[in-house]
Amino acid sequence: MSRSADRTMASRRLFTDLVDGLLEASVIGSFTRIGIMTRRRVAHWIEPPRLDGRVILVTGASSGIGRAVAVSLARLGADLLLLGRDEMRLAATHRSAASTRGGGRIVSTRVDLVDPGGVSAFADGVLASESRLDGMVHCAGALYADYRTAADGTELTLSTHVVAPFRLSLLLSPLLFATPPSVIVTVSSGGMYTQRFDLEDLELAPDSYRGVTAYARAKRAQVVLAHEWDRRWRHEGVASYAMHPGWVRTPGLTASLPAMNRLGPLLRTPTEGADTAVWLVAGGQWSPGRPGRARLGTADHPDGIWLDRRQRHEYYVPTTYRRPAGRRRDGEALWEWCAKRTKAGG
Fold it and tell me: CA of 331: how far to CAs of 136, 176, 228, 236, in Å?
C-alpha cells in the first residue's frame, strides 16, 4: 500500500474516531438513532459474514430486540434455536425468520427461563439433538414495577437477567466447547451505567423494591457475568461479550418506561438495537480493518461493553468504578452466588 493510501486511511480513522467520540460524549446522540445512523455512514459498515451451518441460540426471541436478532441471524443463514415465553409471539418470530429465505434451520421452543425444570428439559433435548452450538444471544429480559419472585425465591428481575442465563449457559456449555470458536453475547442496557456492582445489595427486598433500580442493577450484574464467562471459558474457545443496544422502541420499553416515548422518532428500531449483537455473533469484532477498538481488558481482567460495533468503557459514573482486582473478585463472587442459586458447578 502506498504512503498516500496509508495517510488517507489514517485520516479516515481519525475522522471516524472524532465523530464517534463526540457522539459518545453527548449520550443522547450516542444512544439514539442519531448515533447508529451516523456511525454506520461515517465508518462505512459492511454486512456481517454468512453463518451457514452455524447453530445459534437466541433467548427472548418472541419480541423486541430478541426477535430482531433472530430475523437478522436467519438472513445470514444461521441455524436457529429460538426461545420465548409467549407461544403465539414466538410463532410470529419463527414465521418472520423463515420468510427471510436465509436457508437455515429454525427450531422454536416455548420456555420460561426462570423455570429450572423447563430449562433443564430443554437443555437435555438440545444436548441430545445438536452436535454443536456456535453462539448464544441472551436477549430475554423484563422490567417489573412490583416485587415478584421466581419459583426458587429469587427476585424475578435478577432471576430473569442473571440466574437464568447462567443456568442455561452452564447446561449447554459442552456444546459451546465442542466446536470452537463459539461466542456468548449478553444484551445488557445503558441503564447499568447508573449502578455500582455490589453483591450484598444486588437483590432488592420487598420493602425497598424499585423496578428501575432492580433492572439497572441486574443489567450491571449481566456485564460482570459476561466478563466472568470470558475469563473462565476463553481458553476453551468460548468468547463472551456484553453489549447494550441504545434506546430502542420495544414493547417492553413502551410499557415499562413510557417517558422514553417522548423521544419519538429518535428511538432506535429493534433491528438497529440488535445490530451489534448480530455483528458480534458473526465475528465482526475480529474482522480485518474493523472499526472497533482493541480489547480494553486482558484475559484475566476482561472489560468494556459494546455499542454500535465498538467496545466502550463501562464506567461513566465515578461512584460505580471498580479497579481491575475488584472486578475479578466481583466476577468470582457472582459466579459462586449463581452456582448456589442454580445448584450448579462449573
Answer: 20, 20, 5, 18
Q: Give the residue among 86, 94, 88 at the shortest CA–CA distance from 67.
A: 94
Pick the more confident residue, 305 or 292: 305
State percent of the chain over pLDDT 90: 82
84 and 62 Cβ atoms separated by less than 8 Å:
yes
Strand-pairing partners, residue 307, are 310
For residue 292, what pLDDT is reported? Answer: 40
* Among the listed residues 313, 144, 114, the one whose alpha carbon sits nearest the alpha carbon of residue 213: 144
Q: Which residue has the cell 437443555?
A: 123
Reduced to 3 states (helix: H, G, I; strand: E, B; else coil), residue 187 is strand
* Residues with catalytic roles: 215
- pLDDT score of 345: 57
Distance CA 282, CA 292 (A): 14
pTM of the model: 0.93
3-state secondary structure of 183: strand
